[in-house]
From TrEMBL:
GO molecular function: DNA-binding transcription factor activity; transcription cis-regulatory region binding
Key word Ubl conjugation present: no
PANTHER family membership: HTH-TYPE TRANSCRIPTIONAL REGULATOR BETI, HTH-TYPE TRANSCRIPTIONAL REGULATOR RUTR
Pfam families: TetR_C_6, TetR_N
Source species of the chain: Arenimonas composti TR7-09 = DSM 18010
Residue ranges: DNA binding: 37-56
InterPro entries: BetI_C, Homeodomain-like_sf, HTH-type_TetR-like_transc_reg, HTH_TetR, Tet_transcr_reg_TetR-rel_C_sf
UniProt keyword list: DNA-binding, Repressor, Transcription, Transcription regulation
Record domain HTH tetR-type: where: 14-74
Record-given protein name: HTH tetR-type domain-containing protein
Length: 203
């Protein structure tokens, strides 16, 4: 097996890597990490399996890259949001995209979130990746909570900020799981549940 090809900015190689990663993300989201083999990824990307191995040494390496991309994209998006209300809109759009089969944005892909979370309970390497991302994720959500509170004329002390951030994340994660388990769940009801949750948190 040949050594993976390093990405070159603006090159055809970089475009090929991105194409393979997007195909892998879609396969993992639809079939799970174990259900999506290299053959399925190659078919979705429209390339040979051999070409995939020119860029990635293994499926585990692809999973790591997708997980890193998900983290970076999520952090960037959270940094742009003005308040938690915009987060509700973004989450519902991701759920809608999943239902249409058009593919949710990688940073808020509900199925991929569940797959990574489940795999983290079985695979020590995935668990380590998730754990390493936790501090940054908590900080980004906390900053969003603080901005939302400030827009309402309130300043949260550190303990209140930590608690509200934790509860907000639990609310979001819960709605993601609910929407996956019940694809027919009414969108208006999902929005109302999220908005009521924000009100209960003072956000």
């Amino acid at each position: 097996m040949s050594a993976p090809v390093p990405a070159r900015s603006g090159s055809r190689a970089e475009a090929q890597r991105a194409r393979i990663l997007e195909a892998a993300r879609r396969c993992f989201s639809e079939r799970g990490f174990h259900g999506a083999g290299m053959a399925a990824i190659a078919e979705t990307a429209g390339v040979s399996q051999g070409l995939i191995y020119r860029y990635f040494a293994s499926k585990a390496e692809i999973i790591r890259e997708i997980t890193d991309s998900q983290r970076e994209g999520r952090n960037e998006v959270l940094g742009r949001l003005a308040d938690c209300g915009e987060l509700v809109d973004l989450l519902l759009e991701a759920i809608d995209a999943r239902r249409r089969g058009s593919g949710a944005p990688v940073e808020f892909d509900p199925a991929l979130f569940l797959e990574v979370s489940a795999e983290a309970t079985r695979d020590p390497d995935i668990a380590a990746m998730v754990s390493s991302q936790e501090q940054d994720m908590q900080a980004d959500f906390a900053a969003l909570v603080a901005r939302t509170a400030a827009a309402k004329g309130r300043t949260l002390d550190p303990r209140a900020l930590q608690q509200r951030t934790m509860l907000l994340r639990c609310l979001i994660d819960g709605v993601v799981v609910y929407a996956i388990r019940d694809p027919a769940a009414d969108r208006a009801e999902l929005r109302a549940a999220l908005q009521d949750g924000l009100v209960a948190l003072g956000l």
